[in-house]
Design a protein that fits this description.
By secondary structure, this protein is α+β, with helices and mostly antiparallel strands. The protein folds into 2 domains: about 130 residues, Cysteine proteinases (Cathepsin B, Chain A, Alpha-Beta Complex); about 140 residues, no CATH class. The protein is built from 12 helices and 9 strands. The strands form 2 sheets. Strands 1, 4, 5, 6, 7, 8 and 9 form a 7-stranded antiparallel beta sheet that branches. Helix 2 crosses helix 10, helix 10 runs antiparallel to helix 11 and helix 11 packs antiparallel against helix 12. The longest helix is centred in the last third of the chain and has 30 residues. The chain is globular, with a radius of gyration of 20 Å. Pfam families: BtrH_N, DUF4872.
């Protein structure tokens, strides 16, 4: 049995930033969730579809764990990552730091966690673990999932061992802050510019502003894409607004990050970016509502209207990132 003392078990909106917050507060660094997300250059866009998928997927952030790597690099944190194919070694990788009084981050499949009421496979889920006993592991998850929670050790082992899209091989990690930590304020502009560059210059048409434009063209046909449009459209809307995104497909988080930055840095480019992402966040929530309405009513006109908003969103976000790239 081990229980790390003094853990701040505050749950946030998004899983990876929640876990990062727990680990960093234990190191004496307390940053807001929008600041964690923004310093990790977390914002992105992905339109993902293939013949093997039952329905398209819209992603609003960088791939799992990239945010953590970005944040550690930005702040000069010591990020120690361990992966293994051995369940026995995987447990040792977690128990050792916990026994030494240090919380651990885990990437796993949320399907196997006891406290998850909606059983859906998602291999990119991240939690912070701060203790264990003979039967249970003690975790911090998002506020909507309960914040401080527990799950059986057997279920945790299955969650860590699961294989499939976005999974990792029993990935665990710790963060250590050096004595001379890079001031977060000094890393704001590089983090924003890095995010803007990736968004404006995506390597394929499914990413960034090009991905939003591609979605605008395909979304009006989503009812034809589905065997069960009522269920698939409702789920797509839910994932955009409720599934750990902070609302508006992570745009609320980035809007709030830019607002916090504008209090620290006097820049017209930053103010322009914030204003445009405020508009974008509102538009994304409207898109989600139209997709949900299309599922409920069966009226394809809602998807046509959502597609029109996405054309506008591609322009708004492109202009926002162009302004931010000039910082």
């Amino acid at each position: 049995m081990a229980m790390v003392k003094g853990i701040d078990v505050r749950g946030m909106q998004h899983c990876e930033t929640t876990a990062l917050g727990v680990l960093l507060r234990h190191e004496g660094l307390d940053l807001s969730e929008p600041m964690l997300f923004g310093l990790g250059s977390g914002l992105s866009f992905l339109y993902w579809d293939s013949k093997s998928m039952g329905f398209p997927f819209l992603g609003g952030r960088v791939k799992p764990f990239e945010l953590t790597r970005n944040l550690a690099a930005a702040l000069g944190l010591d990020l120690l990552v361990k992966e293994t194919t051995s369940p026995r070694k995987a447990w040792q990788n977690v128990a050792a730091p916990l026994d030494a009084g240090r919380p651990v981050g885990l990437q796993l499949d949320s399907y196997h966690l006891d406290y998850f009421s909606t059983k859906v496979h998602f291999g990119g889920h991240v939690v912070a673990m701060y203790g264990y006993d003979e039967q249970d592991a003690y975790l911090v998850d998002t506020a909507p999932q309960g914040g401080a929670v527990s799950t059986g050790l057997a279920g945790l082992a299955r969650a860590r061992a699961e294989r499939g899209p976005m999974t990792a091989k029993h990935r665990s990690f710790t963060l250590t802050a050096p004595g001379s930590l890079t001031p977060p304020q000094d890393r704001i502009i590089p983090a924003i510019k890095s995010c803007a560059d990736a968004f404006l210059n995506p390597p394929i048409a499914n990413l960034g502003h090009r991905g939003i434009e591609k979605t605008a063209k395909h979304l009006p046909k989503w009812r034809e894409r589905s065997d069960n449009p009522r269920e698939d459209l409702a789920r797509a809307a839910l994932l955009m607004e409720k599934a750990g995104t902070g609302g508006a497909l992570f745009r609320n988080l980035y809007r709030d990050f830019l607002a916090e930055c504008a209090q620290l840095i006097d820049s017209s480019h930053l103010r322009t970016g914030h204003s445009l992402y405020t508009e974008a966040a509102t538009l994304w929530t409207q898109v989600a509502a139209l997709i949900a309405a299309a599922g409920e009513s069966g009226d394809a006109e809602n998807l046509t209207r959502a597609g029109s908003l996405l054309h506008e969103l591609s322009r708004v976000e492109r202009e926002a990132m162009q302004a931010l790239s000039m910082l």
